[in-house]
Every structure is written in C-alpha cells, then in structure tokens.
Amino acid sequence: MQTACTRTVDVAIPLPHLLKPDVATMVPSQDELKRVAAHRAVELVESGMVIGLGTGSTAAHALDRIGDLIRSGALRDVVGIPTSEWAAARAAGAGIPLSDLNAHPVVDLSIDGADEVDPAFNLVKGRGGSLLREKMVEGASRRFVVIVDDSKLVPRLAASGLAVPVEIIPFGWALTLRRLQSLFDGVPGFNLKLRTASVDAKSTTFDETGSELEPFVTDNKNYIADLFFENGIHGDLRVISDALLRITGVVEHGLFLGLASSVVVAQKDGAVVVKDKEATSNGI
Questions:
Q1: Which InterPro entries does the UniProt record give (predicted)?
Q2: Distance between terminal CA atoms of the chain?
C-alpha cells in the first residue's frame, strides 16, 4: 500500500495564443486543453524509459506526442506498455515500440486520464472499460501522471452521478450483481446495473438485466457492473475497496487509491496546472 505525504505545487502554464491581445477573448476547446495538458505530461518522458500508455481521448494526445518525439529523434529507446487493446493499436500507429509487464514488471512512468480526481488524488477510472489493465500497469509504475480537465476535479468520488465500474467474470454475473447490491444495502441513492452495449459496439448503454442488449465485454472478456452513488461514496475508501475485492466473481474495480503521483489539470481559462504528490513509497 502506498503511503504519501502531500506537497502540492501549482504551475500555471498559459496557452501561447491566449497571450496575444488580439485573441485574448478566445476560449480554447476542451480537446485543445487536453492536448496541451498531455504534451506537458509528455515532457516528463526521457529516453530509455518504460512508459505506461493510457487509454482514452486525453491519453491519445500523449501517445501521439510520444510518437512525434520518437520520429524526430528527441526520444530514443523507449518502450510502451499499453493499458488496452485500443492503446496498443494507437501506440503502434504512432510508432511506439510495445512490450508488456511480463518483460518489464517495473514501469518508469505512466500517463493516463481519469474520470474523477478527489483532493487526496484518489481516482475513479475505467468508465471506458479498461480498468483492470490500467490498474495493473499504473500500479507497477514508479510515477503515475494523471491528465484531466478541471471538470474532473471533485470533492467526493462518485458524487457526479456517473458510475464506478467493477469488472466481473461472466459466469454467474447475476449472482455477483446481487452480492454487490447486498454490500451496499441501506446506502441511500445506491444503484447498480450491468453495462450493456449495442451489438455493433458503436454505442454503450445501461440495462438492469442485460437481456435486451449484449453485455459490454472488456479486453479481458469480462463484464462490467456499474455502481452509482447518488450522494457520492461515504466512508473509508480502502475499506470499501477491500470489501469489493472480497466478493467472489469480482475481478477489479475502478477506485484507484494512492496511485497517482501528479495531476495535470487543463483549466477552462487556458492554463495548465500541475499538482504533485510527494510519495514516500512507490507502491510496488
């Protein structure tokens, strides 16, 4: 378990075009902010590193930037460990050499997005379905840098109304859902659903039984149970984490506790703020 003392360092990095008087009123798009934040995180990558490659729209900018630096010769002898099949394909397309945790059990630096970040740098991740591999790679990292826009900063995890994903095995999934429901019996505003997806996988929706649509299937051929907490998660997060993992049929969950070293935040005003947590243990 990682123990950490927190030292937060805020570094505001304005977007260059926002400094020009003639465009001072321009508002950068969310995607532009993600790109600038991702590029800031990639500045931490050094030649010879083993890099954990995240999944999602924000991580995509980081993968593309790493590929650019490899092609230009600015980065050499780097190896990427992808956190999903999507990340593997994106990284391969960007020209990043790939490997896995079997060959590289210690990762120098991981860069990935997050769905929520609380003041203690605890995260909700994996709403895209890649939580297991993300946690394996990022948990094996000496440093894990999270990239988000400021809408992902929350006072309490799961209070946004969005789900905390739990990866479960397909066998007996209905029984596993009942056990998950029992764990949170009496919690006001709690609900859970099996995640389902259209057959062509072009859209994802939620259904309580999974009977009308196909269950969403992860890269590991598992299902996802989505847990909703109307009032956010109250109580000790590690106790809740341990209780979830004790349920037979649960593979992993989307609470990432004590793993993030730094958070790079893209703000609506066009600045990028870097928040660092000074850890006393790398958690490996």
A1: NagB/RpiA_transferase-like (IPR037171), Ribose-5P_isomerase (IPR050262), Ribose5P_isomerase_typA_subgr (IPR020672), Ribose5P_isomerase_type_A (IPR004788)
A2: 8
Q: Find out whether 36 and 271 touch, Cβ atoms under 8 Å.
A: no
Q: What angle do CA 208, 212, 216 make, to 5 degrees?
A: 70
* Mean pLDDT value of segment 147-173: 95
Reduce the secondary structure of 240-252 to three states and give it as a string. HHHHHHCCCCEEE
Report the chain's mean pLDDT, rounded to a whole number.
88
CB 81 within 8 A of CB 100: yes
Q: Hunting for tokens 């010769």 — which residue is that?
A: 73
Contact 168, 250 (CB under 8 A): yes
pLDDT digit string, tens, across residues 189-245: 999 999 998 655 444 555 555 456 899 999 999 999 999 999 999 999 999 999 999
Residues with catalytic function: 134
Residue 142: CA atoms inside 13 Å, Cβ hemisphere, count?
A: 11
Half-sphere exposure of 174 (CA within 13 A, CB side): 5
